Amino acid sequence: MSDWVDVGSAADLESAGRLVTRIGGREVGVLLDPADGRVRGVRNRCPHHGAPLCLGRIRDRETGAPGRYELSGRRVLRCPWHGWEFDLETGRCVDEPSLRTAVYEAQVVDGRVRLLV
Question: Residue 2 and residue 5: Cα distance in Å, rounded?
C-alpha cells in the first residue's frame, strides 16, 4: 500500500532545488527540474558507490561522438561523484542497465511537497 508523505514546503524546494528526508529507513529526495519545473522523487543513494544522488544535477542526456554532441531530449540525473546518469522516469542507469535507483511520484499540493512511497 502506498501513501503520500509530506517532505517539506514548496518554498524550500524552490529555494534549494531539492529536499531530502528519511522515510522508512531510506533517504529519499525530491528534486525540482529547472527546465520544466517538474518535481521528481528519487532515492538518495547511487547504486554505483553510494553517493548522495540528490546532490547531482538534472540535465538533458547528451549523445553523439566526441566533438559532435547532441541533446537527446531525455532528462537524466547525473551522479555527483562519478557521473553515472539515471533516467528520471525509470531509475535505470542509461549506460549500465543493471544499475537502478528507486524513483517515486512527487507533487506539490497547497504549498507542500509530497512523495508517494
Answer: 9
Question: Environment class of residue 101 by beta-carbon count within 10 Å: exposed (0-12), middle (13-18) or buried (19+)?
Answer: buried
pLDDT tens, per residue, the chain with 117 residues: 689 999 999 999 999 999 999 999 999 999 999 999 999 999 999 999 999 999 999 998 866 556 666 556 778 999 999 999 999 999 999 989 899 999 999 999 999 999 998
Of the candidates 60, 59, 84, 55, the one whose C-alpha atom is nearest the C-alpha of residue 71 is 60
Spacing of C-alpha 89 from chain mean position: 9
Q: What letter would DSSP give residue 56?
A: S
Of the candidates 46, 8, 2, 44, which has an alpha carbon nearest to the alpha carbon of residue 27? 44
